[in-house]
Amino acid sequence: MDDADRLGGVRDPARVRRGRLDRRAGADVRALLVIVIAVAGTLLGISPARAHSDVTGSTPAASSTVTVAPTEVTLTFTGPIRGQFSTVVVTGPGGARFGTGAARAVDRTLHQAVRPLVGGEYTVAWRVVSGDGHPLQGVFRFTADLPGAPAAPPAAAPSEPDDGTGLFLAAAVAGLLVVGIGIVALARTRRKKH
């Protein structure tokens, strides 16, 4: 509010219009700045704090070689997991599945029974829901070098499942880019009207 407003005087319409444009331009710049920071944070991998469980280890350990065949595969997490939503798929040489029965969760550990292993490389793909409701998934490999066990013929390495992170990241960046372009276009059309 300036002196003319306080004294009941008439304001210059050009000054009024210029003041509105300055406020709108400032809002547009602030919105664009928020978008730029969000995109930069996404590209740099900055994310909100993760409060859900993470995997801390497995038996057999990832990338290990076992010489004694395990009867089960276990995964240990930092927090409790929901057993009814858990899945473990153990795939061995030739693409054969070695898991038997359903996976079972006990507090922070997920257990998957396996049938007798043969020599070769194994892939363990798992998916769980943590105690707070967040889904988690991952893949690891181990090798069985079992004395006296028949070695399976080498098979083509299975491709790792896509967890959708790359697609989500690309969609988020594209969405933010579209919003940013929309804000810039809106700011330009408002300036042309006034």
Give a nutshell description of this structure.
This protein has 194 residues and is of the alpha+beta class.
* Relative helix content: 25-40%
Sheet with most strands:
4 strands, antiparallel
Ends distance: 21 Å
Low-confidence stretches: 46-50, 154-161
Strand order of the largest sheet: 1-3-6-5
Query: What's the CATH class of the largest domain, please?
Result: Mainly Beta
Total strands: the figure is 8
Continuous helix count = 3
> How many structural domains are formed by the residues?
2
Residue-averaged pLDDT:
77
SSE sequence, one letter per element: HHEEEEEEEEH
- Inertia-based shape: elongated
- Structural class estimated from helices and strands: alpha+beta
CATH topology of the largest domain: Immunoglobulin-like
Q: Gyration radius, to the nearest Å?
A: 29 Å
The percent range for strand residues is 25-35%
* Shape-level CATH architecture of the largest domain: Sandwich
